[in-house]
Specification:
This protein has six helices and 14 strands. A hairpin with a 7-residue loop joins strand 8 and strand 9. Helix 1 packs parallel to helix 3 and helix 3 runs antiparallel to helix 4. The model has no long low-confidence stretch (mean pLDDT 93). Helices cover 27% and strands 31% of the residues.
Amino acid sequence: MKSTDRIIKDIRYYEIKPKDFTGDFNGIIGNVHQITDDTNSIGQRIARKLNEFEFISGEFDHIYINFTENLKLGNLVESEKKLDKRIKYVDYGIEPKTFNSLTEYEKNKLVKDLTFKSLILLFEKDKEKIEKIIEVKNLLNKFETEIEIAYKTKETNSYKIEIGYMINPKKTLSKIVVKYFDKKNETQHITTKDLYFYEDIFYLVDKIEVKNGKIIFTTKKTSLGEIATTKYESSIEIVITEMEINNIH
């Protein structure tokens, strides 16, 4: 893959230090803007769903949206900040007191709308990319926090397994979503498993095997994989007959 063909990985939120602020300030949103439990998950869901669609963002694959009082309320501009070519910065004008006066629902809606506006600002000249952004927006509006992101599939003549994940659905832990399609009996089996962090799925599910009526996940054998998977069983095994069953028809 060329350096200009990177697929988007992450969308994060930051804040610019207000002039009258004193004390420790790390720039990550939450120092002066009172965010909700879902704020950071919103950007992660949008970025990872676009990643599933292989959304090519270009030379950068991270987008950082800065909340700042240095712009007029509601103004949204591509930042002149260029510290790393793999990160694109966008500045959004809002004072902390304005944001903090909103309800939880209003804050989440603002962050969601702002994220899609930022994407449209950055890719407004590319019709195909705009269509993908709108598709993800429609899916997020439909499924909200329970939007599923596809990860891996395995298919044989007798079954198909689809592995996906949800990022902090309904303020709970992230989930692995496992769907087992029995082609012979035309049934779908489904279950979920908790994830402490949604990124853990990339290490917990490396290979998929079906053996003795179980779906078995093999973990990724890397140093990062070993660190990520120490919180879990050595491998996840799911008994197919214990999964919830739905008829495909």
